[in-house]
Specification:
Elements: H1 2-12, E1 24-32, E2 41-42, E3 45-49, E4 52-57, E5 68-79, E6 81-86, H2 98-104, H3 107-123, E7 126-131, H4 140-149, E8 157-160, E9 176-179, H5 182-191, E10 195-198, H6 204-212, E11 216-218, H7 221-230, H8 242-257, H9 276-284, H10 289-303, E12 320-325, E13 338-343, E14 346-349
Parallel strand pairs: 1-5, 6-7, 7-8, 9-10, 10-11
Antiparallel strand pairs: 1-2, 1-3, 3-4, 5-12, 12-13, 13-14
Helix pairs in contact: 6-8, 9-10
Zinc ion binds next to loops.
Length: 351
């Protein structure tokens, strides 16, 4: 199966140059962002064995006998990115509006599109997606997840919601709520949700309540900018739309309170694979790049109750890793073009 998975990628991606790697791989980057630290780690290599990180040390002190050594010059190795708000069963509204997608596209078409969306997401360095609702397609999201698990298609790990506000995947009765007005957010917080999506009219008072109760916020800034664009806005030209001014104000209010920030873009409203746009906007709206990187890795992993498996470059974690050119702490936009994506046995190498 391992060979098949990798062969499949060779057919799909002409840029793949390392189709079949040994079971043990040593990745030698210039630097490592481990998912938490505020500084990059240098002088260390990472030994991956059977899909897990087993050692992080100087190259000459690693067990090298049977391992394939992969040099990543000029690159930073970091955890695979985690998207907390996707809709793999939607595609951009300027291609087909939401009503027509939900009312006129067959579930078969939507499932096939989802397969393409998942491939684009993995190529973009996203190794886990929390998909928040099938948008009129019943439990097709569950079927797509099962197809992924069987190796029928490739893509990020999917944690799906099915219909409306429901338990995520197999992790108990955890809930998230899509809410925009302060009153809707307050009710969701008091009802015990773990994350609030959108919240674009959030106030300091509401974000303080969220902080007190440990509720995290997924601001979905990219969806807001995409929709304003579909309505005719050209960024940098003319008056700023009210919804953009409002989402900037709520983002500033949230930063002021120190509420837990997730990284979730609402991708599906815009192109799958463009998820890193959200991370760029979080920086543009005033968040420190290293904090954005933490949100998209270790913090998102904690919010998925998977902090012991993903979101950090750390011994014992799953080998879900990406490499990017340069330093993502000083230039968040390098996340747009990962040079390597490793998801256990699946490896995309664009070096
Ligand atoms: Zn959504």
């Amino acid at each position: 199966m391992k060979y098949l998975l990798r062969t499949t990628f060779v057919l799909w991606l002409t840029i793949v140059v390392a189709p079949v790697w040994a079971d043990d791989v040593i990745l030698v980057p210039d630097a490592i962002f481990d998912g938490r630290s505020s500084e990059l780690i240098t002088g260390k290599a990472v030994l991956v064995s059977n899909g897990r990180i087993v050692q992080i040390a100087a190259l000459d002190s690693l067990e090298q006998s049977a391992a394939e050594i992969v040099q990543l010059p000029g690159q930073t190795l970091m955890p695979g990115l985690i998207e907390l708000h996707s809709h793999v069963l939607l595609h951009p509204y300027d291609e087909t509006n939401w009503n027509d997608q939900v009312l006129k596209e067959s579930w078969a078409e939507r499932a096939l599109r989802a397969g393409n969306h998942l491939k684009a997401s993995l190529e973009a360095g996203y190794t886990t997606l929390r998909d928040l609702g099938s948008e009129g397609a019943g439990y097709v999201d569950v079927g797509v997840k099962q197809a992924l698990q069987k190796g029928v298609i490739v893509g990020p790990r999917l944690i799906v919601a099915g219909k409306a506000i429901v338990a995520t995947g197999s992790y108990g009765r955890y809930t998230v709520a899509h809410a925009s007005t302060p009153e809707a957010m307050r009710r969701a917080i008091m009802a015990g949700v773990e994350t609030i999506e959108h919240g674009n009219a959030g106030t300091v008072e509401i974000f303080n309540l969220m902080k007190d109760r440990g509720v995290a916020w997924c601001p979905t800034l990219a969806a807001g900018e995409a929709i304003a664009g579909y309505q005719g806005w050209k960024k940098g030209e003319g008056a700023e739309p009210k919804r953009i001014t409002a989402q900037k104000a709520s983002f500033a209010a949230a930063l002021q309170t120190g509420v837990i920030m997730c990284a979730g873009s609402d991708v599906g409203v815009f192109d799958h694979g463009d998820n890193a746009w959200e991370l760029e906007l979080m920086v543009e709206y005033g968040m420190k790049p290293v904090d954005v990187l933490r949100s998209a890795t270790s913090i998102n992993a904690s919010l998925l109750h998977m902090a012991d498996q993903i979101g950090q470059v750390k011994v014992g974690m799953l080998a879900e890793l990406i490499a990017v050119k340069g330093n993502p702490i000083t230039d968040i936009s390098v996340l747009r073009k990962p040079t390597l994506v490793m998801q256990g046995e699946i490896v995309l190498n664009k070096n």
